[in-house]
Design goal:
The complex is a heterodimer of chains A (77) and B (325).
Chain A (H helix, E strand, L loop, with lengths): L1 E5 L4 H17 L4 E5 L2 H5 L8 E4 L2 E5 L5 H9 L1
Parallel strand pairs in A: 1-2
Antiparallel strand pairs in A: 1-3, 3-4
Helix pairs in contact in A: 1-3
Chain B lengths: L2 H14 L7 H33 L2 H10 L5 H12 L7 H10 L4 H13 L2 H11 L1 H24 L8 H8 L15 H36 L16 H9 L6 H13 L4 H13 L2 H7 L5 H25 L1
Classes of the chains: A alpha+beta (77), B mainly alpha (325).
């Protein structure tokens, strides 16, 4: 599984990242987590609002913090 | 409309706690309780409503809407209007800006959106309503939209495209498909409700501390500063009051949640409403942190032009407010 978090490094992006890490720990799922902070890189995904959570290159949450419970659901789906 | 809250506050403070009415402490506590209840009710209501609208008009739809047809100038209104109902974290301004311009939306229209979005949002509307009543709220929202349109239009006439930073120019020149990755949005209204409520609670929670502190300071000032206190210093006749208030407000960074409760007391103690509204607009509309973010896409020259034009528009609207009200 591949998880990407897009965000320029604002508080909301950091919270999302921490939530992802915690969700992985809670579920025991092994995944590659990449944090993309470079704006040019982010623009390649055509998103308008950050933070964005991508799981296996599918946008799951955008423009807001992804909650821990949500991420756990995505991981187990 | 809020009579029952006032009765409730009177009852708690004067009857239950037993502090004498018309005492300074009693008035202060009463003011605090009344405002807190009123604002939190309005805040929750307005964020819920905006959440519903936003769930049907997410930012991607707004962009597609703006790029799909020729607008003949009406796009300034559409962008400013949607800016007011579309919330976004200020750290999104860079991707938003690039996404809009790359999608073919004119620079001035994109800037109009960027100006109106922080100026008018759910939290501001709710607190304005609670503090100054719905009539002044409508005046504030309307002037926020008009101001963004005018500023965006002026900026478009200044032909600033050449003043964008190099990497943005390169990015904009590159051909790339603008198909946004769409999420599944076929949910029914009922299915959307839990997420909307959750979002609204999140927003209310996020600003609640600011509001409480703002109301507490406002309450103290309400109880202890004599009415008309500021009139001697800042009157409507002083032509410099508006620009000074705006220029002090521009670098400041605060959300409306904290400053508006204090603003209300300032008005009550004699500062003209237009001056206060202009100051609030300067605080929420422009700030040093926002400038630093925009520095990624704008050269210093463009940033200075952008800030100057918006500042002038805010000062102008402050004068107009004071004339009209």
């Amino acid at each position: 599984m591949n998880i990407k978090i897009l965000g320029s490094g604002c508080t909301k992006c950091k919270i999302t990242y921490n939530n992802v890490m915690e969700a992985l720990k809670a579920t025991g799922v092994v995944a590659e987590v990449v944090k993309i902070e470079d704006m040019e890189e982010i623009m390649k995904y055509n998103v308008l609002t950050t933070p964005v959570l991508l799981i296996d290159d599918v946008v799951k949450v955008k423009g807001r913090v992804a909650e821990l419970s949500e991420i756990i659901e995505f991981l187990q789906a | 409309m809020f009579d029952w809250i006032q009765k409730f506050a009177d009852w708690i403070i004067y009857q239950i706690i037993g502090i004498a009415s018309h005492s300074k402490l009693g008035d202060t506590l009463n003011f605090f309780l009344f405002d807190t209840i009123k604002i939190f009710i309005l805040l929750f209501g307005v964020t819920l409503l905006m959440g519903v609208i936003n769930s049907y008009f997410p930012i991607e739809k707004v962009r597609n809407f703006l790029t799909k047809r020729k607008w003949y100038g009406l796009d300034y209104f559409v962008a400013s209007f949607f800016g007011t109902i579309t919330p976004f974290c200020s750290c999104s301004s860079v991707p938003l800006f690039i996404g809009f311009v790359k999608g073919g939306i004119p620079l001035g229209v994109t800037l109009a959106f960027l100006i109106s979005s922080p100026l008018v949002d759910a939290v501001t509307v709710a607190i304005f309503w609670g503090m100054f009543g719905w009539k002044i709220t409508i005046i504030y929202v309307t002037s926020g939209i008009i101001l963004s349109m005018i500023a965006g239009f002026i900026l478009s006439k200044l032909k600033l495209e050449g003043l964008l930073t190099d990497w943005v120019k390169t990015l904009l020149a590159k051909k790339q498909s603008m198909e946004t990755i769409d999420m599944d949005v076929s949910e029914s209204f009922i299915q959307r409700v839990p997420a909307i409520i959750k979002e609204a609670i999140g927003i209310v929670k996020g600003v609640s501390l600011y509001i409480l502190v703002g109301i507490a300071i406002g309450g103290l000032m309400h109880g202890f500063i004599p009415t008309g206190f500021f009139e001697a210093y800042i009157s409507k006749d002083n032509p410099f009051a508006v620009p000074i208030a705006v220029i002090i407000g521009v670098p400041m960074y605060s959300n409306t949640a904290g400053i508006l409760p204090i603003m209300q007391v300032l008005v009550e103690k004699g500062i003209p409403l237009g001056t206060v509204i202009a100051f609030s607009m300067a605080v929420v509309g422009l700030s040093v942190p926002e400038g630093l973010l925009l520095k990624k896409i704008m050269t210093t020259k463009m940033l200075i032009i952008f800030f100057s034009v918006v500042t002038l528009c805010i000062i102008l609207s402050g004068y107009i407010f004071n004339l009209v009200m």
